[in-house]
Amino acid sequence: MALGIGGTVGGGIYVLVGAAAGHAGPGALVAFALAFLASLLIALPYAELACRYPLAGGGYAFARAVFGPHIGFLMGWGFWGAYLFISGYVTLGFGGYLEVVTGLPTIAGALSLIAACLALNLLGVRVTGTAQTAVIAVALAGLLAFAAWGLQSVELERLDPFLPGGLEGVLLASLLAFLAFGGFDMVAAAGEEIEHPERNLPRAILITLGAVFGLYLLVCFVALGALASDQLGASSAPLADAAERFGGAQARDVVVFSALLTTAATANAVLVVTSRISFAMARDGLLPTPLAGVSSRAGAPWAALVVSALLLAVVATTGSVAFAASAGGFLYVLHFVVPLIALIALRRRGALGASTFRTPMPRVILPLALLACAVLLVASGANGTAGGLGWLALGAMGYRVAVQGG
Length: 406
What we know:
It is a single chain. The protein is 79% helix and 0% strand. It is an all-alpha fold. The chain starts with a helix and ends with a helix. It has one domain: Up-down Bundle (Amino acid/polyamine transporter I).
């Protein structure tokens, strides 16, 4: 749960709430509800696969087990690329908040965070999990403090008109809100290191979504009731501005401190996921073998951690945040499509054995989940589609040359 909530409650709660309000006004509350439903539709079959294949690499492991190494490689490469691209938004977001407090340049702060996460992860998953739990507990307390502090200052008249952008505004805001729910799949990526995965994986995934949904609605309601929708939409730090409106500089400081913790926790979760994906692919012979190295003392995949941290640093130093976010979003949504198809294929083959968790009403849930993915892929735009497909093409060429010998 700490890994899932840490990966989900990151920059989205601080930025995307404002962006959603800019499109839908108070209807952003409806948008977050629709995004939660879309996430739940995808999470239910994903949780079932996580139970059946509790393996390092999450969706990559599912795809490889069902469709073989070729599709498995593209799935893993796309999954890896999604989080590598998206990491720039998270680490630079941390650096930006840190600069407000200390004056340290944004990139320097981002690189410092990556180095700290690497050092922590090299100590092993138990130490990482303990630290993640502690950080998220403090961060969630800060967000709840924002909500409790501002709840008494909510002006209900700010919620009228409720749908100034109409249905179109709500749908656009729903696409943004979906990105704010991204992260529940991180739990499955560390499946081999979780005790009793057949019980704990689905619980952690579903509880993560439920807890985050409740938090998002509460925080969004307070922000909309404290600051006008157009002001929230135009702000680069909407929650901080809303907090300053009802609580002054002290409330703003609480939000900034909470933002630092949550972006740090998200960056740590991203490093866990990217390293486990590359480790699993190397162990399966789909990436260079040295990436499968594991520390005998801590049990952590040290080589994959180091390489992933270096790539995160490259993105933070040289990447375009806007392009990286769109390309990463395309790849992130795409990585759900293959596991969904894999589960459908297993059901048609009659190859499903006993499982402690099964997707309810699969003939309804699975088509709806694929439809949600299709809408989100289209919404990523031309730049995101081109960037994502370019990354996949690069991986396919490298796979053919290095693995298949041309």
